[in-house]
Amino acid sequence: MGATTARATPLDTSTADVVIRPRAALVRSTALSIGFSAVPIAVAVVWVAVPNGPWLVVSAVVALFTVGVLAVFLRLRSSFVAVDPGRVAIRGVLSARRSFSRTQVHELVLAITHGPTVDRTSRELVAFDAAGDTLFRMRGEVWGDDGIDRLVDALDVRTIRLARPMSTREFTRRWPGIRAWYEQPRAYVLVGGVTALAVGGLLVAEAVGLARR
């Protein structure tokens, strides 16, 4: 994300001209996935681990994973983009809350992106300041196409609409500054390392438990 200047007084979303929140369907499906998939799997993993010995270790890992999932869900529910006559305030799902002057928004780029295949596309909106630095990026799959259109209308600045769909990789290669922290290579390395350590710890605990039987 580009560098922005935070304001000490947060923007009041109750009086903002425009407030955009994540799609209700996304919040609802996330809640259902947690309730009917993640929770039963976590309970089953701990239940299976109890007779084998290392259930405390397994429970600790499951508890940490559960806390992380719930934190992301609560963050999703409380995320917003708000615009008033003087400022823009953003509370992202996986990014810190920030606020900047509305006059800093110099240009918008509206694109249609897709993953490895072109079957599933998503609209993306990126805002830049006068120096070309990224102010924020919004994905239609999170905020909804209607939310993106409302924000474009509210900001009312020059908007470049890319007619040709492009892959997400091509999009981020064209504007490298739009990558979020979790899209950086070091973030993948960190997540992979933590996952490897967690799996390795569970395997060691399982081996120790079997050896004591």
From TrEMBL:
Species classification: Bacteria, Bacillati, Actinomycetota, Actinomycetes, Micrococcales
Protein name per UniProt: PH domain-containing protein
Organism name: Curtobacterium salicis
Transmembrane parts of this sequence: 30-49, 55-74, 187-211
Keywords linked to the UniProt accession: Membrane, Transmembrane, Transmembrane helix
